[in-house]
Design goal:
This protein has 126 residues and is of the alpha+beta class. It contains three helices and eight strands, in the order αβαββββββαβ. It has helices at residues 3-16, 37-40, 110-122, and strands spanning 22-32, 44-51, 54-60, 67-75, 79-86, 89-96, 99-106, 124-125. Strands 4-3-2-1-7-6-5-8 form an eight-stranded mixed β-sheet.
Length: 126
Amino acid sequence: MRTRDRRVEIRLQTLVGADDALVAWTRGWVSRELRLHRLLAARTFDFAVLTDRNLFLFSTGFFSRRPRRRVYSSRLDRINVSDHVRPHGRRLRITSRNADPLWIELPVSDRTTAFADALVAHAHAD
C-alpha cells in the first residue's frame, strides 16, 4: 500500500473509532437525490468508509484533501443499496427510512470496485 493511502486509512480509522474495523474505503462524488438530479444536484468529493456495521461519509478538507468531519453515518441493517454499473464507473443509490436517498458515483479503480462490492454484499439489496 502506498504511504499516502496508509496515512488516509489511519486517519479514517481514527475518525471511525477503534471499536469498528474498516472493511473498505474510497473517494466518490456524493449527492442527494432530487428532481433533475444531473442538472441541479450539489456534489461533493467525499470519503466513503464501510465497516462491519456502518457506512460513513467524511467531508474532505479544502486545502489538505484529508478526511475532516463525518457528514453521514448509518447502520448497514437500516439502508438499502442498489448498484448501477456504468461504462465509466459505478453509481450506488443508498436509501433508508429516515433520510433522503443518496447517490455515490465512483470512478473505475480497484479500490472503488472493492468498496462497491463490499457495500452491496453487506447491506440490503434494493
